[in-house]
Amino acid sequence: MDSKEDIILMLLRSFRMHALLGLLAMTGLSACGANLGTESSFPESQGNRVFQEGVPEERQTIFGDGGILGGTDKDLRDGQGGGGIGVNSYLWRASLDTLSFMPLSSADPFGGVIITDWYTPPESPGERFKVTVYILDRRLRADGIRVSAFKQNLDTTNNWVPVELTPKTVTNLENAILTRARELRIAREGQ
C-alpha cells in the first residue's frame, strides 16, 4: 500500500502534467489569432460571392430577381415585403404601433397575423379587449387589412361575458392602422 507521501507526490505530478498541457493548449490557441504579417489577395467579390474574373454585369440566381425571399429593391422601397417579412411593411409596422398599448400574444410577419392578449383599460377594470389583425396584401391598400376585435365584461359572479362590439369600432381601428401606415410611408418616401 502506498504511503500518504507517495499519493501526494503522484497527485502533484499529475497536477503539474495537467498544468503543463493546459499552458501548451492556451499558447497554441492564442497563436491562432496572431497576425503573422502575411497579406492575402482575394478575387473580386460582391456580397458574399467571390468571382475569379471580376464581378459580372448581371447577377442571376435560380430564385429570380428577388432572391429566395422575393422582392426587388423597388419592392423594399415600396414597403412590399422582402427582407424577411412576407407582408406590406408599412401595414405591419402601423399595426404594431397602433396596438402597442396592448400586450402581444403572437406576431407572425410571414403570415401577416398579429394577435394581442386580453387588455384591461386602467379606467374600466370591468371590461377587457382582444384584437387580431390580418394583413392580406403586400401592397398598401385599404382592403389589405382586416381587424377582428373582441370585448368581454365582468359580471357579478366574476365571470367574463362576451359583448358584441359595434362594426364602427372595428372600422375605426382599421382606419387608425391605415392612417399610421400612410404616415410611415410619407415619412420614408417624402410624398
Outline the structure in words:
There is one protein chain. This protein has 191 residues and is an alpha+beta fold. Helix content is 35%, strand content 19%. It has four helices and seven strands. It has helices at residues 4-32, 73-77, 89-98, 167-189, and strands spanning 45-46, 49-50, 104-108, 113-116, 127-135, 145-154, 160-163. The strands form two sheets. A five-stranded antiparallel sheet has the order 3-4-5-6-7, covered by helices on one side. A hairpin with a 5-residue loop joins strand 6 (145-154) and strand 7 (160-163). Helix 3 (89-98) crosses helix 4 (167-189).
Task: Explain the layout of strands and helices.
Layout: H1 4-32, E1 45-46, E2 49-50, H2 73-77, H3 89-98, E3 104-108, E4 113-116, E5 127-135, E6 145-154, E7 160-163, H4 167-189
Antiparallel strand pairs: 1-2, 3-4, 4-5, 5-6, 6-7
Helix pairs in contact: 3-4
Largest sheet: 5 strands, antiparallel
Q: What is the strand tally?
A: 7
Low-confidence stretches: none
* Assembly form of the protein: single chain
The whole-angstrom Rg is 31 Å
Q: How would you describe this structure in keywords?
A:
two-stranded antiparallel ribbon; 7 strands; 191 residues; alpha+beta
State the gist of this model.
This protein is of the alpha+beta class.
